[in-house]
Specification:
CATH topology of the largest domain: Rossmann fold
Radius of gyration: 20 Å
Bound molecules: uridine-diphosphate-N-acetylglucosamine
Low-confidence stretches: none
CATH superfamily of the largest domain: Glycogen Phosphorylase B
Distance between the termini: 13 Å
Number of helices: 17
CATH architecture of the largest domain: 3-Layer(aba) Sandwich
Number of strands: 13
Strand order of the largest sheet: 3-2-1-4-5-6-7
CATH class of the largest domain: Alpha Beta
Amino acid sequence: MLKVINVVGARPNFMKVAPIMEAMKRRTAEFTPLLVHTGQHYDTSMSAAFFQDLELAEPNVHLEVGSASHARQTAAVMERFEPVVSREQPDWVLVVGDVNSTLACALVSVKLGIKVAHVEAGLRSRDRTMPEEINRLLTDQIADLLLTPSEDAGANLRSEGIPAERISFVGNVMIDSLHKNLERAAASTIREELSLTDKQYAVLTLHRPSNVDDSATFSRIWSALEDIAATLPVVFPIHPRTRKMIKEFGLNTRLAAAQNVRLIEPLGYLDFLSLYSNARLVLTDSGGIQEETTVLGIPCVTLRETTERPITVTLGTNTVVGSDTEKIRQAAIAALGHARKNNFRIPPLWDGHTATRILNALIARGLH
Ligand code: UD1
């Protein structure tokens, strides 16, 4: 019997941990799972909505850290997580992704001599100005079991000197959530509420500090958006960080004036799935959305200079363009040329069964 603390902190963690918790709860003879929420994300639309949509049970422990600078937020998670691990003495702590909570909880656990499993290990953008890249590099150095979503991730880890025995290629667990919820998302009424016609609109998401904390970069992206919106309505669910920056830059009026752009609150998992899975085009700086659009064959234009998920470009539907107005415009025009990229392939092991492989990898390592 393995006792496992599963950690969630921010929005992109919930859809990765939900299938793992569910699988552990089914295998009661082998696993005792606990769920710890650090509270890095706390707005209803960024957290509670996802628990409901993904049928995630209430966390056993909520650390309620909230927002702060990187140092303060990471430190707060560490301080509050340490007594939980000391008290519970789990066999494993399982962390996912690359947010501050991921690194903080991994670091606390290894120092207490508790084994750490990292889901989505080995992704590298090679851009060390991204906070997530630092979180990924450090978490992978200290974790005992590195569960990778793709072959390139394993190659990255081996090239950093991580022994092959610590690496297990399990596939992409986000896609487990995608498969499970596609049908449920069909009941969402979000497209009717926004008066959208299937395949005749684009979806935009934007929240990376590199894009939204700099007004010149944000402006360049927005100019491209205004042009794209002349051809196709654009729906833009706004991340709280982005909303805060738009206000700070005094860009509210320009955004409100944009014809054919719908600014809406962040959506829950099912509404957002319903929205992007029926879109003609997605523009994003998110990591996970590059993967989800690849599996569904939806053209994706990534508004970043690099991606830690190159397989979405080589096999999937993704084009990485950065923040240059003209490049975004050209990529959007090219993507609109074909409703679905027809030569895309779904990457190996992005098949909806990754949670099972993760559990099997934990069992194979057992208590040692
Ligand atoms: C974090 C992750 C990022 C992930 C993103 C998804 C890190 C370093 N970054 O970035 O990798 O892609 O989550 O959303 O961990 N805020 C709210 N309500 C919330 C959460 C945040 O208002 O529920 C606002 C706060 O003003 C906060 C800001 O958003 O200061 C940034 O939040 P934070 O969690 O620090 O980083 P994200 O930009 O969300």
